[in-house]
Design a protein that fits this description.
Blueprint (H helix, E strand, L loop, with lengths): L1 H6 L5 H16 L12 H19 L4 H18 L11
């Protein structure tokens, strides 16, 4: 099953962009949308972006620089957008 998913990276396009959208909603949206687990916010953020990076890497296997730029720029823009939200604080 995993080999089949890796052999067809085009099947990951929607999943990769939906994950990016979900991370954006949880980062920029109201604090109540952010899931809280016992592992803590730093590990949660790392895990979310790790999963996003893996998904984008499977989707665009020959464009890893593109993947890195998308993730880094997105992370920065999400933090910057928090400046405009009440009850949110941007912290890099």
């Amino acid at each position: 099953m995993l080999k089949r998913l890796i052999d067809y990276p085009a099947s990951h396009h929607a999943l990769a962009w939906v994950l990016l959208l979900l991370i954006m909603v949880m980062t920029v949206g109201p604090i109540t949308l952010r899931p809280a687990t016992w592992i803590g916010p730093n590990v949660e953020r790392f895990s979310a972006f790790l999963l996003l990076g893996i998904t984008f890497s499977l989707t665009y296997p020959k464009r890893l620089i593109f993947v890195a730029i998308i993730i880094i720029v997105s992370c920065g823009l999400f933090e910057y957008a928090q400046h405009f939200m009440q009850n949110r604080h941007a912290d890099i």
